[in-house]
Amino acid sequence: MDTQFTLCLEQMESWFRLLEKSIPQPKKIPFLHSFVFRYKEKTLEQALIQKLARVVTGLHSARILLNCGFLQEQVAINRILEELQQDISFLAYARLRDGTTELQLRYLDAFYEEEFDIPENPVASTQKRPLIPRKKIIAYIARKETDMGISNPSYATELTRTLSKAYSGFVHGASPQIMNMYGGFPPQFQISGMLGTNHEQEHRSDLWNYFYRGLLSFNEVALVFEELKVAESISSYTISFEKAAGNVYTKDS
Questions:
Q1: Side-chain half-sphere of 130: how many Cα atoms within 13 Å?
Q2: What are the phi and psi torsion angles at 36 (to 5°)?
């Protein structure tokens, strides 16, 4: 499965380079005694490419942690991936379904807001990013997927909430999740990694799901960008990715 992950990441980087070229590029903006790169236009598409970049680095990070046996930390990255992939669907549906809503506009305003409005004195900065509640993003996605005949909104929302709560225990260090590190002969906390434990294969299978969802995120972005050849390549690869793992979710046309 690790070979499959490596090949998938190579494909993702190839698609990413094609997609990022199709939108206005970041510009140098003066910052203190130097500069930073920023997207001046602050478009929805530019937000999508930034989120997609973090999906790729997140998958790289989760794979490395898994292969070193740091399973708790891998799941914390999975939680980040979960939200990144939700964000991509949330924004992509504005282009693919029924237009940009007020909720998405508020999201973009918060997304592009600078961390410090007084760079020379960060302590004096008044920035307070008005984050959109995650439950509103999840509910929006559930409604859109119901419109497309994909899911039951109430069930999908509750399932996502349950998974998010379980993963939060790994992020914030709840006792039940930490105790997954305890075992062996003699029993002790496995603080140098958990390779070879019963949990390893579970985590590897779980990571496959995030790679698969990463492919779906790439496809959504390619469709938003109207890069149909890239979208076709992603769809074809996704089918082969499923088959390699013995899964079939899409029909091979």
A1: 7
A2: -130, 160
